[in-house]
Design brief:
There is one protein chain. By secondary structure, the chain is α+β, with helices and mostly antiparallel strands. It has a single domain, classed as Pantoate--beta-alanine Ligase, Chain: A,domain 2 (2-Layer Sandwich), CATH 3.30.1300. The protein has one helix and four strands. It has one helix spanning 2-50; strands at residues 59-65, 68-78, 81-90, 103-112. A four-stranded antiparallel beta sheet has the order 1-2-3-4, with helices on one face. It is rod-shaped. The protein starts with a helix and ends with a strand.
């Protein structure tokens, strides 16, 4: 009888632990994606200072760190203004392509020509 009660009581505890673990993994993926998107934005910003007209920054399915992938979209708004959109996410199905359902963070910003 006591073992049956113990088993019945353990089910909700195990469900709560599993749910907590899944939530932790989701938060970890979002935080890593946020750090990677910021680092990629800083890299593009530094490259654009010295080579603004050297071509587009657009890239697709760029590997950043392990299974984290990145898509970069570069749209020229005028000769002195660009819109850069960076999407980063975790490649859950390991196909080396960042699908719409895998994107964790998207950051869009404008870059102006410095000189």
């Amino acid at each position: 009888m006591a073992s049956a009660l113990l088993i019945i009581a353990m089910v909700p505890v195990l469900k709560a632990l599993t749910s907590g673990y899944v939530t932790t993994i989701i938060i970890q993926h979002r935080m890593n994606s946020l750090m990677l998107v910021q680092a990629k934005l800083d890299e593009i910003r530094a490259r654009s200072i010295y080579n603004y007209t050297g071509g587009s920054f657009t890239q697709s399915h760029l590997s950043l760190d392990g299974s984290y992938l990145c898509n970069i979209n570069d749209v020229t708004m005028s000769s002195n203004l660009r819109k850069i959109t960076i999407s980063v996410g975790y490649d859950q199905n390991n196909n080396n392509q960042l699908g719409d359902d895998e994107i964790e963070v998207t950051l869009a910003t404008y870059f102006a020509r410095r000189w």
